[in-house]
Design goal:
The structure holds 2 protein chains of 2 kinds.
Chain A (H helix, E strand, L loop, with lengths): L10 E9 L3 E6 L13 E5 L3 E14 L14 H7 L4 E14 L2 H6 L2 E2 L9 E4 L2 H8 L6 E7 L6 E4 H4 L4 E4 L6 H14 L4 E6 L7 E3 L5 E3 L1 H4 L4 E5 L2 H6 L6 E2 L2 E2 L5 H6 L8 H14 L4 H6 L3 H11 L3 H12 L7 E2 L6 H10 L3 E5 L6 H27 L9 E6 L14 H8 L5 E7 L7 H6 L2 E4 L5 H8 L5 H9 L6 E6 L6 E5 L5 H6 L5 H16 L2
Parallel strand pairs in A: 10-20, 10-21, 11-18, 11-19, 14-15, 14-18, 16-17, 19-20
Antiparallel strand pairs in A: 1-2, 1-7, 2-5, 3-4, 3-7, 4-5, 5-6, 8-9, 8-23, 12-13, 21-22, 22-23
Chain B lengths: L5 E8 L3 E6 L11 E5 L3 E14 L16 H7 L3 H4 E14 L2 E3 L12 E4 L2 H7 L6 H6 L6 H13 L5 H15 L4 H9 L3
Helix pairs in contact in B: 5-6, 5-7
Classes of the chains: A alpha/beta, B alpha+beta.
Chain lengths: 544, 196
């Protein structure tokens, strides 16, 4: 049958059975082909007294009498095929009712509420109209950011960014499904709606100045779109120069900044034994928290020999530790004495409401990423915490919310490390201190369950590993239904959003990012336009 | 069936069916067609389900007379009494009635009056009657001496002629049959095949 063009409010069928937990079953009308249905689509159900919104979670083929399938009707005859469709054989949808709105004036004012019951038998089921979607997700305004459109619809699905930033959130999806594009959009959303400032640990240098799409064309980074609102910090000055990126600050970290806890996290990446990580704490006690690394790296063979019995550690432990620490020397951004304090600089920018993107350049290995991201975040978090506590006392104004974006999050937030890294704490302690996380990962099953359960909004592109899907959907109502939706997402530009900042789970076709129009829609002004705008502003300023 | 014609007279009647004798030999309305009888209060509609031509006297059998004759008509010309000694009857299953302005697709309170005239129905009337297909239930459940499904199929084919777009009428009727015969796929298939 040919693809049908559904009008708004096309009747699909009627409710025949179901329950709130498993979802209701809808018998499709004969005129509707199952082939035109899709999991993840929205439907509206006209109940007796209230209206329901739900999502299609399954499509199935049914026969009114199982025996009919043993002696199938002769459907090669178009007449017979037409007669039996919708009668002897019919399509069935499973719909998960998620929101409801009552018919009285009070309920209309209150807006959609979570569904606590199901519509009555034979309630009419229609495709949700543009208005329905707008009613549920709200129109784009100074809080809501347009993130994409529902499947087969033109309406905008908006994310309440001000709610979004109050919790830690996650963007998941296997490699090449559009996580980076989605994250760029979210960062633009936070920036545009001024809901929070972002600090992005940009492992592959794709957010700041310029990224590349899967097909190889260049896409503008945030700095190009919003030059006055974004600062690019670079860890690798040389790489930035090659890529012709104008950096705002080159990050150098002094040995004195590295604390034993930082080495603790690098145990695996630096190939350290348990004993040698413990020895670090002894060394720090011996030489002081700020000096130990420099001293240890500069110890001569003789000095080492004297030190080993003093600390009462085994020679092989010391050798292992020394080898591991020597590895740190290959990072040019680690210097004995840093000329400037990167934490202070980052905070200065963040305080001014400027988003900071730290590009890792060539140092896109985990050792550098874990070390730097942790080290900086820990100090920044401490500052925010201090400020938030002072604000509680009423001395200072609370700071602007900060969202820290980290990639490959399962490396930081796996069950072994989640308790030790600062990110585990941020994820758990949530918004108390105005700092939240945006976790970007392709292997959500590697992330600690406790952290996963604390994520407010989860945006997930296609995942096909059973464990990953399970871990993303843990604790969500209608998990098994959403599972089928999630595993059937397209590989590109489609995502399932659910959680705190959307009233109900939604499958979206992600808003476009990368074309000239899309930049314009996001608020980017071409150079000539920008100049005109500035001139106009100056003129207005001096006008009598 | 195009125009309303008086074709027969009720000679036996019960609540569910009536038997009518045709005025002319072999001039019964077609199998499955809609016929009606009238009295002061109501019109009663029936679907022709069986047609019989037989001798008026039950004890007297019809014998073959055409040997040596060229055509069948010659037999009647040579034996003019035959037309008076033979008769054509048909049986109709009552499928609804009209009382006042209301058209009902269920049995009337009283059977057709004996000796009431039987008319064929005009296409417009057939169309009006088949707007609702509720009468199919009566047909499906009827126990008849001839295969019911043949009658149903014939009835729907006849009714289809009243519609400019007979195809969509037949699809609608087919769907109604699919609902009625939901538990008997074999029977449904056989009816559907007879609708073309």
């Amino acid at each position: 049958m040919s693809e049908q063009n559904f009008d708004e409010q096309t009747r699909l069928g009627s409710i025949i059975s179901g329950s709130l937990t498993r979802g209701v079953e809808v018998k499709l009308d004969a005129s509707i082909s199952v082939e035109d249905m899709a999991v993840g689509r929205y439907v509206a159900i006209e109940g007796e007294r209230r209206r329901f919104f739900g999502m299609i979670t399954d499509v199935s083929l049914e026969a009114i009498d199982p025996r009919a399938m043993v002696t199938p009707p002769d459907v090669s005859d178009p007449f017979i095929a037409q007669v039996v469709s919708g009668t002897t054989i019919y399509g069935k949808l499973r719909v998960l009712p998620m929101l409801t709105i009552g018919g009285d004036a009070m309920s209309i004012l209150e807006g959609p509420q979570p569904a606590k019951t199901v519509p009555t038998h034979f309630s009419e089921v229609k495709l949700a109209s543009q208005r329905d979607v707008e009613l549920v997700f709200g129109a784009e305004d100074d809080k809501r950011f347009y993130i994409g459109t529902p499947l087969d619809m033109e309406t905008k699905v908006c994310l309440d960014i001000s709610e979004f930033v109050t919790r830690s959130n996650g963007v998941f999806g296997k490699s090449g499904t559009g996580k980076t594009f989605l994250t760029r959009l979210l960062l633009v959303g936070m920036l545009q709606k001024q809901a929070a400032v972002s600090l992005v640990f940009d492992m592959h240098s794709e957010y700041g100045w310029e990224g590349r799409s899967e097909k190889g064309y260049k896409v503008k980074g945030l700095k190009q779109l919003f030059p006055s609102k974004v600062a690019v910090f670079a860890l690798d000055e040389e790489s930035s120069r090659w890529r012709k990126v104008s950096t705002d600050f080159v990050v150098k970290i002094g040995y004195d900044e590295i604390e034993p806890e930082d080495i603790d996290l690098l145990q695996q990446t630096l190939n350290l034994t348990e004993a040698s990580t413990q020895a670090v704490y002894q060394l720090a006690r011996e030489f002081g928290d700020r000096r130990w690394l420099e001293v240890v790296l500069n110890l001569t063979e003789d000095e080492s020999k004297q030190l080993i019995p003093k600390l009462n550690i085994h020679d092989s432990t010391y050798r292992n530790l020394r080898r591991g620490l020597e590895n740190l020397r290959r990072f040019p951004f680690l210097v004995p004495h840093a000329p400037d304090n990167p934490v202070k600089r980052i905070l200065e920018y963040l305080d001014r409401g400027i988003n900071v993107i730290l590009e890792f350049g060539r140092f896109d290995d985990f050792a550098a990423y874990i070390l730097v991201a942790n080290l900086l975040s820990r100090r920044i978090y401490a500052q925010y915490r201090e400020k938030a506590e002072k604000a509680m006392g009423g001395d200072v104004a609370p700071s602007h919310p900060l969202v820290i974006s980290i990639e490959e999050a399962h490396r930081f937030l796996n069950p072994e490390l989640a308790n030790r890294t600062i990110f585990g704490r941020i994820a758990r302690e949530m918004r108390k201190y105005n700092v939240t996380l945006l976790v970007i990962d392709q292997r959500p099953s590697g992330i600690d369950d406790e952290v996963m359960s604390q994520l407010g909004t989860k945006i997930t592109c296609l995942l096909d590993d059973e464990r990953d899907i399970d871990s993303v959907l843990t604790g969500v109502a209608g998990k098994s239904e959403l599972k089928s939706v999630l595993s059937k997402l397209e590989t590109k530009q489609q995502a399932l959003i659910f959680g705190h900042s959307v009233p109900m789970p939604v499958v979206i076709k992600t808003r476009e990012y990368g074309s000239a129009e899309s930049y314009k829609e996001l608020g980017f002004l071409e150079a000539a336009e920008l100049k005109r705008k500035t001139e106009k502003e100056i003129e207005d300023l001096w006008a009598p | 069936m195009g125009t309303e014609q008086r074709v027969a007279e009720v000679i036996e009647a019960s609540s569910a069916e009536f038997v009518a004798q045709c005025y002319k030999l072999d001039q019964a309305p077609p199998l499955g067609s809609l016929v009606k009888t009238k009295d002061e209060l109501r019109k009663i509609y029936g679907v022709v389900y069986n047609v019989e031509t037989h001798s008026l006297e039950p004890g007297r059998r019809v014998v073959a007379r055409g040997e040596g004759m060229e055509t069948e008509d010659e037999i009647f010309r040579a034996n003019p009494q035959l037309a008076k000694l033979l008769c054509t009857d048909f049986q109709a299953l009552v499928v609804g009635h009209r009382q006042g302005d209301g058209l009902h697709h269920y049995l009337p309170p009283k059977p057709a009056s004996i000796h009431s005239f039987v008319y064929t129905c005009q296409l417009e009337e057939v169309k009006a009657f088949t707007q609702s297909l509720d009468f199919l239930g009566l047909l499906v459940d009827a126990r008849l001496p001839i295969p019911v499904d043949e009658v149903i199929a014939a009835c729907l084919r006849c009714a289809g002629q009243a519609y400019p777009d007979s195809e969509s009428f037949l699809i609608k009727a087919g769907k109604e049959m699919a609902r009625l015969l939901s538990s008997d796929a074999r029977r449904l298939n056989s009816v559907l095949k007879r609708l073309r």
